[in-house]
Amino acid sequence: MGGSASTLLAEPSAYSTHSLFPLQSIGGFVDRLIRAAGIRFFGVLVILLLGLIFAYVAGTLVHRLLVRVGVPESIEGTAFERAARDFETSTVEIISWLTRYFVLGTSILAALSFAGVNYADQFWTIVFADTLPQLFVAILVLIVGVVIGDKVELLIAERFRAVKLPQVNIVPPLAKYTVFFLAALVALSQVGVTTLPLLVLLGSYMLGLIVLSAVAFRDLLRSGAAGTYLLFTQPYGIGDEIIVGQTRGVVQEFDMFVTHIESEDEEYILPNAHVFEEGVGRVR
Amino acid sequence: MAALSELLGDLVADVDGLFLFTPSHSHYERFAEADVPTVVIAPENTLDAETFVELPLQFQNVKDRIRFGVEGAMEQSIVEAGDTILCNVGIFDGDPDSVVKVRVEENMRSGIYDLFANSRADPGVIRDVFEVAIELGKKGQKGEPVGALFIVGDAGKVMNKSRPLSYNPFEKSHVYVGDPIVNVMLKEFSRLDGAFVISDSGKIVSAYRYLEPSAEGVDIPKGLGARHMAGGAITRDTNATAIVLSESDGLVRAFKGGKIILEIDPEAY
């Protein structure tokens, strides 16, 4: 290939010597190339080549490291991993490729600045050199956040499997989205987006929620807390005759917030907080 | 030689109301402004009809379906005894395909509507239990015909009028009928003897219950076994509804107030 390229460039008078000493001709070609483009071009080539090699090696190293510490097993079954599998790749693969692109991008930047391309100094360095590492970290944080969020959801759901209470199902997604939110915040602050308004918004939401629930849902919350205990331990069941304060009757139904007890002609619906305060007497 | 439309003309003459059973939207639009009051009878009021009777089960038997609709309308004072109504109802699958003229009589109150609308338990719970019983009757337990007894509503009283045959598999659990997984559980546990007790809101309180009602004054047809007798009798003693799947003839029957209210064949669904 070098031979044919050199034949194209070579003068017709030197044709016979070329076919006799091809190695020499390649050397001559590179020599001439360097002389034509200058040492700079050669340096750029070397930097790019080194970058390519280094990118590949770094990606492979990251891949091996992640596999060695057992990342693929521990994130098995998370939504992100499954989505990655659908595209015939995996989270570890994606991260290692990300590393490669990052290293390659850095080397391209280095090559550009080495080549002394003017607009590179003006434009690319400003736009890229500052943001590239941050962008890389941001994407990494996002991926890790999504994976950890999924994993947290799975773990909590597994932990709650023994609890036969449908209302508990709300907790795992809540934990997941909290982790997502945190990851998004960190990633956004990495790329330099001001996250303060988001934090303020969240804070005011939480404050509003707490104030509202403390004022408006006080009784419901109290009953809910008591009801959680009652549902878990079930000190009385449906069909038991109980006495709560002045009320006596057969338990017909109980849920998170209220207990229905029925005597001869009357049905009482007692808030669980009341049941808890008064204590329960069981009639044998 | 009379024209064919006269046949329908005779049927349509002097009716006091039109009952549309699960009509499509365009169908309803066409007849909503008819010269007689229109009543929609459907599982859900998706058409925003003014007068509406909820149909909790798609009764395959057209007679049951019409009876349910008429009873519901009587209960809501839409029609009264002596009225003549026209029912537009689908006998075969799909859109309404036939017109039935019905004279409303006081003795049409068989309690089917009452069973769903005025039971202690939520109508949705009764419907869900019906569906489980019907499915169980259709498929049986591993291909074998199986019997089952569900006591729905007034669970506190029912529990006090029964005793456990063995450990209660639903002890301290919070499972509700209508959940697909729970329906599978119910089917699995139906091989056990005894009754399922289900609360007003659909919580499965217990399986394996031996019912101990006093059986006097229970009015159920002769020839039904101990399961039906126990189920029928407990509904007289309490405000519960009993839904019984017979092992021998495979029919699903509902009891309330010690009387048999409804009998449906699972195979027909």
TrEMBL record, chain A:
Xref: SUPFAM superfamilies: Mechanosensitive channel protein MscS (YggB), transmembrane region, Sm-like ribonucleoproteins
Keywords annotated in UniProt: Membrane, Transmembrane, Transmembrane helix
Domain Mechanosensitive ion channel MscS: start-end pairs: 221-278
Membrane topology summary: Multi-pass membrane protein
GO molecular function, one term: mechanosensitive monoatomic ion channel activity
Family stated for the protein in its record: Belongs to the MscS (TC 1.A.23) family.
Protein name (Swiss-Prot/TrEMBL): Mechanosensitive ion channel
Organism: Haloferax mucosum ATCC BAA-1512
Automatic annotation (TrEMBL), chain B:
Chain segments annotated as coiled-coil in the UniProt record: none
E.C. number(s) listed in UniProt: 2.7.7.85
Gene3D superfamilies from the UniProt entry: DNA integrity scanning protein, DisA, N-terminal domain
Cofactor names: Mn(2+)
Entry keyword set: ATP-binding, Manganese, Nucleotide-binding, Nucleotidyltransferase, Transferase
Catalytic activity from the UniProt record: 2 ATP = 3',3'-c-di-AMP + 2 diphosphate
Enzyme superclass (EC): transferase
Family label: Belongs to the adenylate cyclase family. DacZ subfamily.
Protein name per UniProt: Diadenylate cyclase
An example Gene Ontology molecular-function term: manganese ion binding
InterPro entries named among the record's database cross-references: DAC_DacZ, DacZ_N, Diadenylate_Cyclase_DacZ, DisA, DNA_integrity_DisA_N_sf, DNA_integrity_scan_DisA_N
Residue ranges of domain DAC in the record: 109-266
NCBIfam families: Diadnylcyc_Halo
Cited Pfam families: DAC (PF02457), DACZ_N (PF19294)
Cited function: Diadenylate cyclase that catalyzes the condensation of 2 ATP molecules into cyclic di-AMP (c-di-AMP). c-di-AMP is a second messenger for intracellular signal transduction involved in the control of important regulatory processes such as osmoregulation.
